[in-house]
Design goal:
Layout lengths: L2 H6 L3 H26 L5 E6 L2 E6 L12 H29 L5 E3 L4 E4 L4 E4 H10 L7 E3 L1 H7 L3 H11 L12 H4 L14 H6 L5 H11 L3 H23 L9 H19 L1
Parallel strand pairs: 3-6
Antiparallel strand pairs: 1-2, 4-5
Helix pairs in contact: 2-3, 9-10, 9-11, 10-11
């Protein structure tokens, strides 16, 4: 959402350059970090009009009963880095450029040659089809990824969450509290990109002002905005719940002014 508005702006070249530079900085930083951890692997990305395609190699092909445990653990780390960079892209582009990303992450064999603008493979087709199901700004996780690890969604989300417990990068689709929210009634596994803004305590007031403006512009955007607000509310509630288990008793007190501000901004859109 938002890319069409970007195209129609009089200062399109300047605005697009800013968008491109923000996305490239995030992708290059992630590329560097991934290379340090897995120097034998290739991390590739490509811009194509309003799409950003990202690929990262896995250490095994999946579906093999002779897999080595540490290969599976490595793949969880690789996937965590991919999910993290996607969340950062979503959060940063929404906050700084009013561009709200929809997309999907899938798994499978693909031929990726960025220098020749070649990106071919079933996971690319699958991601494109899944992206159509994202009826508000979110990134969907393809169940094929669970199959890659031979895990259920519950096992997958727990294992991915254990890599960095303080990073609430996925919504808990096994929780009735989560699935009761309007945004998650379809039961589709979704990344928690808004938490990136909350954890960083970024100023999100311009984001909410833009959201209100969009919701008031058409019935279609109003409905999508309601779903996005439902997702944001769940993200915010999980953020607040995290302080209950915090070893620092003063952490909630220290962040209370920010929490109060976010709560007020959410209410202002409802």
């Amino acid at each position: 959402m938002g890319f069409k508005n970007l195209l129609s702006k009089a200062d399109f070249a300047k605005t697009f350059t800013s968008y491109f530079n923000t996305a490239t900085t995030i992708l290059q930083k992630s590329h560097t970090n991934t290379k340090v951890l897995y120097p034998e692997d290739t991390y590739k990305y490509l811009f194509a009009s309003d799409s950003i395609l990202i690929g990262i190699e896995t250490s095994h092909q999946g579906g093999n009963s002779n897999r080595i445990l540490n290969y599976i653990e490595e793949d969880y780390f690789r996937l965590f880095h991919l999910v993290y960079v996607v969340n950062e892209l979503q959060a940063s582009l929404a906050k700084d450029h009013n561009l709200w990303i929809r997309g999907a992450i899938s798994a499978g064999k693909a031929c990726i040659i960025p220098e020749k603008s070649i990106y071919v493979g079933q996971p690319i087709v699958d991601s494109h089809e899944l992206e159509k199901m994202a009826n508000f700004p979110r990134v969907i996780i393809d169940p094929k990824i669970f199959a890659h690890f031979s895990h259920s969604y519950g096992e997958f989300s727990r294992n991915l969450g254990e890599i960095a417990p303080h990073e609430r990068i996925l919504f808990d689709m096994t929780s009735p509290k989560t699935t009761s929210k309007k945004a998650f009634e379809d039961g589709i596994p979704t990344l928690n990109w808004f938490d990136f803004l909350l954890t960083s305590e970024m100023d999100v007031e311009p984001f909410f002002e833009d959201l209100k403006e969009r919701m008031n512009s058409s019935m279609d955007l109003y409905k999508k905005g309601q779903l996005l607000l439902s997702m944001i509310t769940e993200s915010f509630e999980r953020y607040c719940d995290s302080f209950i288990l915090s070893p620092n008793p003063n952490e909630r007190t220290n962040r209370q002014p920010y929490i109060d501000k976010i709560e007020r901004l959410i209410r202002s859109c409802n």
